């Protein structure tokens, strides 16, 4: 990261809110109001990898779609490169999309089964008037190489590929227009565990190669632990903690973040004893609990948590947390196994990094 | 990955993108049932088109010395109640019936598809308006609606086709709307929006190709219904005007002589049966051929 990277904000969301349902529908009466995303503010710096983490249903995917304005917010605003996109007229918004792209979770549903891979990757190029004809074909081949597929795959259909390969096609399609911002909506959670690292590494490589800013949405910390620069933890439509990766993992302040970290599998026998795992399900976002939304599952909850809603406040430079007790709780200690890296593992990681060239350079 | 890398390193740019253009045709003609359908529809189409050349007699010429004659060497399929050659009439009648079936469906599709797409895609008031209008039309039995329309337009084969086509519109609107609603929820449609594909292109490229299978099946079924509807309208004097033949009008006259002259109804009946079967097989074959997932 360069020196001015910390001040160069590519994306700025202010008080983003999205409610679903609500209102009166004949003959069903009053519909429940679901607060999927409730007043989320965040800034993403150019060139960083920003992760959004939370359980299923916490609103993280909705947030990703709000950022791209694939769904309209109920309230709040999004600025992309200083430009307000919430009120942008449809045609201007459509043109803006070449600069901000998304990769979807489901590699099977996110590619039109009736289009060839070449047509899928070439489509963004033609709808934005970037390239056509032979030039477009050349760009398609280049993109396929870039994501580690063969150029002659362009004539095939998505169903002829595996999940991991399809996700690569999705990445090629998203990157065809050379966007500056790429959002991955759980890009690997539908893939086999053995394929996940490949796809994540590919994203990292491409990010460095193309100067991307990456927003990764994930439902656990394991996937993003090694890739993200900053992490926002969401719970029930709100951000409860936002911090640099290191400071989040070393000194997690919110009890929810702690339980997410504790949920990362530790490959050491006996390490289990130190962990406190979260019990129960999150409450319904249609009827969030009063006060702190996490108090129903929080082991530290006090009276104030049941009545007053904690605001997101700075507790260290760049470390913000929404918890009344953030100052009082003793620093959380991680299981030792997570912190110490054996010499053998370091050797293996170095070996892997050396062998993992960027596919395009091999071609 | 290594194996793949070396594999594509050897490729020249020319051979890189090789579109498989004829795969739909290859799949279609690799399907025996599709070929049977093709042959059936093609044969009847050919016979209808070539009727003036190959028909042994003038279809309207009466011969009072040969009334209700059974099939013989002179009249291969027999004669009707006023001595007209049934073979010639079946050949000529094919024009009216095929025409009515195909044109009516084209009319229904031409109106029903865009209206259904609009209802499903835009939702809200557009959908509410279109859906209620469709419901109202569907509440009237299809044939009654066609008869009413044909009567209002005046008796002729063209008006009968328009009437049948318009009466079939609600079915296509309904079907299209429902299909759009289900395809619209797919990730790849949101993906197309995220990429910045304009609305009309999303409808044309991402939605319509993914709803063709049920529409094709419905279209072939509706062709069959339309052929039969044309027969009913002709019987009421609202379709093909006598003495010009159509299978429907022949069948309806023939039913009075079922016991005395069964061949009168048998020939047009078998013709309708075979054409409808042909269209159904054709539709199934097209549906399978157009789906890249079916191998």
Q: Can you summarize this structure?
A:
The complex is a heterodimer of chains A (363) and B (295). Chain A is 32% helix and 21% strand. Chain A has 363 residues and is α/β, with parallel strands linked by helices.
General description of the model:
The complex is a heterodimer of chains A (363) and B (295). Chain A contains 13 helices and 14 strands. Chain A is of the alpha/beta class. In chain A, strands 8-9-10-5-11-12-14-13 form an 8-stranded mixed beta sheet, with helices on both faces. In chain A, strands 4-1-6-7 form a 4-stranded antiparallel beta sheet. Chain A is globular. The N terminus and C terminus of chain A are likely disordered. Chain B is mainly α. Chain B has a single domain, classed as MetI-like fold. Chain B is 74% helix and 0% strand. Chain B has 12 helices and no strands. In chain B, helix 4 packs across helix 12, helix 5 packs parallel to helix 8 and helix 10 packs antiparallel against helix 12. The N terminus of chain B is likely disordered. The interface between A and B is large, with 47 and 33 residues.
